[in-house]
Amino acid sequence: MTMYLVNSFSLNMLGGGDAFTVNIKKLTVDEARNILAPEGHLDPGVVLAIGHADTAAIVGTLLGLPEEDVARMVEAAKNRPTIKMATGDKALVAQYIGPRLPEGTTTLPEGARIEFFLVEVEL
User: What keywords are assigned to this protein (predicted)?
Assistant: First the structure.
């Protein structure tokens, strides 16, 4: 089982197979933090695939992650991998909702928010 941290979910992320069941559960910030960083630091097994460095920094800060974890998330965003989820894989989606983020943004604009969802893939 692989755990991904992403900022969106797409059907293109589903790997081989013809039929899937996708379960989605909305999470609180605390629940998301406990999944990604149960010991206070980002679990090293989490595949980081947030698409933009600014979004990664905002998500890491919102989750209350240590600076070195936020820096790792920002660096990973520069070379995000293509995601292909298989049965048993999970993705924690940090879904940004709001106006387009200006380049270099370090905080959420007024009226914007990030909602967290856990996506689980089954056959």
Answer: Plasmid
Instruction: State CA 92 to chain mean position distance.
Output: 5
pLDDT tens column, 50-87? 999 999 999 999 999 999 999 999 999 998 788 999 88
* Residue 53: both structure tokens together: 């460095």
Kindly state whether residue 99 falls inside one of the protein's structural domains.
Answer: no
Nearest to residue 37, comparing CAs of 46, 24, 26, 28? Answer: 46
Q: Which of 76, 44, 45 is nearest to 59 (CA)?
A: 76
pLDDT at 16 over 80: no
- Asked if residue 122 belongs to a domain, the reply is no
- Any domain includes 96: no
Residue 101 in domain: no
Q: Domain limits at 19?
A: 1-46+58-87
Question: H or E segment at 113?
Answer: strand 113-122
Quote the pTM value: 0.93
Q: What is the pLDDT, as a whole number, of residue 80?
A: 79
